[in-house]
Amino acid sequence: MKNKDGMYYVPAQKKAAKVCAAGDFIFSAAGLDHGHIYGMVSGLINAGATLKYVYDPDPAKVAAFLKTFPTAVPASREAQVLDDKEAQLVASACVTSERCALGLKVMDSGKHYFADKAPLTTLEQLESAQKKVIATDKKYAVYYSERLHVESAVLAGMMIKDGVIGQVLQVIGLGPHRLNAPTRPAWFFEKEKYGGILCDIGSHQIEQYLYFAGEEDAQVVRSQIANYKNPAHPGLDDFGDAMLVGQNGTTNYFRVDWFTPDALRTWGDGRTMILGTDGYIEIRKYADIGTDGGADTVLLVNHETEKKMSAAGTVGFPFFGELILDCLNHTERAMTQAHAFKAAELCIKAQLQAVRIGPEIRDGGL
Question: What is residue 241's DSSP assignment?
Answer without folding.
Answer: E
